[in-house]
Amino acid sequence: MRILTFASLVFLGLLAPALASRAAYAVNQVPVLDIGRTCRAAQDYGMNDPKETYRNCMLDEKEARTQLGQKWSKFKATSRRGCVPPHPIPSYVEMLTCLEMDQNTLVPYQGGVGAAGGTSSYTHDSAQPRPAMSPGPRPAGSF
Question: How far apart are CA 84 and CA 56, in angstroms?
């Protein structure tokens, strides 16, 4: 079993506040991500010319960053903390999607009002019968 030395304990003691302040910073402001690296990695997976894939990726990431800047304070701190990407290829698009999905799952049912603000004919306690369950797959040759 390895014993922590005094120097290791001191290092850990100095590291903990730095990590805590970084986490607090991530909650208060949109984090700065290396989208250039993210988009360079995306070039290998694009369907088009790698340069076009990179350019489109950068445009999407910059647009998502702008939207995050406008909406950041409206997202809950716990959501912001949970959606900051820890992985090596972070993305503002993924972060924005995560925050919006988290925000939308916390919205209570509003009696027929759709996401776009329109009304829906669907009622939650509808007396309409549900469709019958599918009988499932048929054995081979029984078509």
Answer: 22
Q: CA-CA distance, 85 to 94, in Å (whole number)? A: 8
Question: Rounded to an integer, what distance in angstroms lies between the CA atom of residue 43 and that of residue 52?
Answer: 8
Which SS3 state, helix, strand or coil, does residue 114 take? Answer: coil
Q: List the structure tokens of 133.
A: 């369950």
- Contact assessment for residue 66 and residue 93, using Cβ atoms and an 8 Å cutoff: no
- The string over 97-106, giving b where at least 16 C-beta atoms fall within 10 Å of a residue's C-beta and e elsewhere, is ebbeebeeee
For 40-92, give the secondary structure using H, E and C: HHHHHHCCCCHHHHHHHHHHHHHHHHHHHHHHHHHCCHHHHHHHCCCCCCCCH
- 86, 83, 111: which is closest to 98 by C-alpha? 83
For the chain, give every domain's residue range: 16-105
Per-residue pLDDT of the chain (143 residues; tens, 9 = 90+): 344 344 333 333 433 333 333 444 457 899 999 999 999 998 888 777 999 999 999 999 999 999 999 999 999 999 999 898 777 788 999 999 999 998 877 656 565 555 454 444 444 444 545 555 555 555 666 55
